[in-house]
Design a protein that fits this description.
- By secondary structure, this protein is mostly helical.
- It has eleven helices and no strands.
- It has helices at residues 24-30, 39-52, 57-62, 64-70, 76-79, 84-91, 100-120, 123-127, 147-158, 166-175, 189-198.
- Its EC number is 3.2.2.20.
Length: 202
Amino acid sequence: MSQNTLPDHECPHRCAWADSAPDFPHYHDNEWGFPVGDDQRLFEKLCLETFQSGLSWRTILSKRENFRSAFAQFDFHKVAQFGEQEIAELLDNGGIVRNKRKILAVINNAKRALEMVDQEGSLATFIWRYEPDENTLPPPETQTTCAESIALSKELKKRGWQFVGPTTLYAFMQSMGLINDHAEHCFMREEVDRARKGFVRP
């Protein structure tokens, strides 16, 4: 993960979306697109993408620490044990998005994550099988799905996961480094490319 601390005026060539909100530049420069092989971080992002459905990423990012606190830092071993009391507490938590269907989906997906670890060894092992071939992808910022996000969506749904549509999973792939979708002019594109080249696939 990068640790860029340059002032905004010294980084004028970000992806266009990264300058659209005050908290986006740091997220863009230090997280978005860097490859992730940690199961808990992968699960967290899948959950946050679930909550983003129909909303803006800015809304979710601004509440991310609240989500982490509410969902046991997205430790899916713990979330899988959530019952009626935890659900009631989540629905009463004004710091997160209080959507019951999404909350239940996260708890369901935690249970499915446990199954996947048992079957595949880790979430990362399974998810990184769907890394697209860079040579088959169109130019950055030109699509919202790809063949691999469609295939991953289909397989996760088959395994009982919820809120895992192809567009949601494409956004997940972008942020978790399965795809380098930084704009051609973006100063982070080469750094993310280097990180991806040095990343040991699970």
